[in-house]
Fold:
Amino acid sequence: MAGPSPWATHLSHAGPCSLAALRTAWLRYPNLLRRYLFSTDHKVIGLQYAFTSLFFLLVGFSLAVLIRWQQAYAGQPLPLLTLLVGEVNAPGGIMLPEFYNQLGAMHGTIMVFLGVVPLAVGAFGNYLVPLQIGAPDMAFPRLNLASYWFYAAGGVVMLASFFVPGGAAMSGWTSYPPLADFAPQGQTWWLAGMLLLVLSSLLGAVNFITTIVQLRAPGMTWFRLPFFVWTQLITSFLLLLAFPALQAAAILQGMDRLAGTSFFLPSGLMVGGQAVDVAGGGSALLWQHLFWFLAHPEVYVLVLPAMGIVAEIIANNSRKPVFGYRLMVYSIFVLGFLSFTVWAHHMYLTGMGTTISAIFQATTMIISIPSVIVLSALVLSLHGGSIRFNTPMLFALAFLPMFGIGGLTGLPLGLAATDIPLHDTNYVVGHFHYLVAPGTIFALFAGIYHWFPKITGRMMNETLGRLHFAGSLVTMNLIFFPMLMQGMAGVNRRLWDGGAIYQHAEPVLYLNVPMAHAAFGLALVQVFFIVNLFMSLKGGRRVTANPWEATTLEWAAPTPPRAHGNFDELPRVYRGPYEYSVPGMDVDFLPQHVPDAKAGA
Amino acid sequence: MEIPYTSEPRPDTGLTNPKIGIWLFLASEVMLFGSLFSAYALLRMGAETWPDQSAVLSVPLATLNTVILIVSSATIVLALAAVRAGRIDAYRRFMGLTILGGAAFLVVKAFEYSDKFAQGLVPATDNFLALYFTLTGLHALHVVGGLVVNLYLWGPGVRMWRTDPARFTGRIEVAGLYWHFVDVVWIFLFPVLYLL
Ligand code: HEM
Ligand SMILES: [Cu+2]
Structure:
């Protein structure tokens, strides 16, 4: 969005307060709406997704800071808190357990469904997939627009739920019944918001798959697709086929809450010492099956796009083709299929029986194989490269070991014998945060630094970027590594008092304090990013269309890519996506759209 | 720039965008109803007692509805054939019949529901009725959705026939696929809820 901003014209026209000026402004206004709010251009929608999801990441992160503070200083008054969240939630500066539970449930919900996935798929996928396959737009531009607005509506419903009587959902991001069936009204809002988000992701998934299948430019055969596009394709299939299970579950829970059914309520259920007046005969396990049938594939929705971004950035900055491109593609296919077969590893403690448990232990061990292959291929891609250590590359490189820690800590969770002591402890929280925070979110940061020059024609500032990187890496590890230690000492997750009731865990409880401080530190270093982002929009160093000397098609488009159509002329593709350091050439990269080997020079 | 393959098939895939889109959408719908059918199976297997379904519900009315939906599935095929043959009047007739079929289905369903309510049978009564109302209610919503689309294509949507007949034909085909899906779901619901 470089060049003169239409807002500026708009303002200067409206300058003197004459009737004519007002009229011009008024006439312009619908145009602006169409251009920035209701555009069907995939790039505008991608940016809408980007800004909205970054906002939600910030909201979700703020909730997490409050959670960490509470765990470190449970019961100690903090007058500022009453100011921030109100007398009802923190009377006299002491956070009420009910409010603490809302923080936990909504942190998870917001981060996963409103932050990371919309940024990874809605923003990166939307902006890049049509460009990387050489298409003028998505296959269904109007569905794309609808998908964004359903997402935004879901977000509004979720945020609004904080202000309804009884507050937001408070039964965990997993919303397990029977608890969730009896939670205050906020839970119903959660269900409604979730249905909107499912609708949004359904429209998005249909659109992505159709686009990738149908709109590849001439010559863009399947095995010339950048790895990022592959990851988006598999991700879309997961969203398409896994989300309906949560849709069904949300409908059933809605019926339980609003129509008095007992889908999830067993017979003879007592709440607060009293028998509940329901028909009974339901099953709380049913919810868990449906929820995890979605939520395990969902964790791959969280990592696949990250792997895609990292692959692009590593190939580009090590000036080498990625190692084992086809193997990586086959691996994520296997990963996609298997991700539908492992969900009950979240349920080893439910007494579902040893046979079922054995099956899910086996599938869980098998699914780690393709993940390890992709990770190893990415590491091997570095071998022998001449690496440029710029900010995007630093984030991408850090992704590798962080994701590695996350994956390795998953293995003991996948085996019932070791999961039984670890389940529902802070160890699990540490495990998946290593994957999602210094894993996926680092990849997303890498992507922002990497593609910013394509979107704006300007570079982000390197120094601020490096400060942001180093600060985030250190503080994230200070937050998440102690979780693994506490969990192994037996400290449960989601505790209002930070585990103070666990005498045996005394030696590790003090860690709550440095974790809280590190969370504040993490918040502070994000200032480098926010300042950098907005400053570089106007003041970043100007660059040409392909500043990273990259090979894929988005860099063949003008900067910024043309509104409605992307390319000056639709490209034709002559080769695979990572032709770096081809022997016998004058330059070390050969773009996909350049016809003849010599012409690349 | 125009989006390619909105009405002509892409040579190497042999498909148009809307056709892929609707199949993907239906795949997702299969997972939705599949999840609900699994919920039915799990709850029924775990139940100590289960009512005699055909005694609680009205099998004759459901049989009538099954016939109505199957017929309307046939008329939408005829509507598509008429469009392909360029006979727009016949198209409107068959599409009109399809719409009537959908509406008739909903009317019968409304009779069934009010009959149950009159007997004091509601979703909260037991898990069988809870499943019955949830599954048939969701299915009825799908019928309503189909009706809205079909009404549009029967009324104002026909304009496209003159400006872009290929695209219009594609739309009827897509609407038809959706309508068949709604029919197929009912054909599973009928035995599972009324007969088994
Ligand atoms: C690579 C192999 C992996 C294995 C073997 C594995 C295994 C597990 C297991 C068994 C649990 C359940 C632990 C428990 O509650 O007792 C779990 C939890 C979790 N994992 Fe993984 N995981 C792996 C990768 C991932 C990835 C890639 C992600 C996503 C980025 C992820 C995200 C999560 C999340 C979000 C939870 C917690 C859900 C909750 O209870 O709230 N895992 N993991
Ligand atoms: Cu899992």
Q: What stands out?
A: The longest strand of chain A covers residues 270-271. The longest helix of chain A spans residues 97-133.
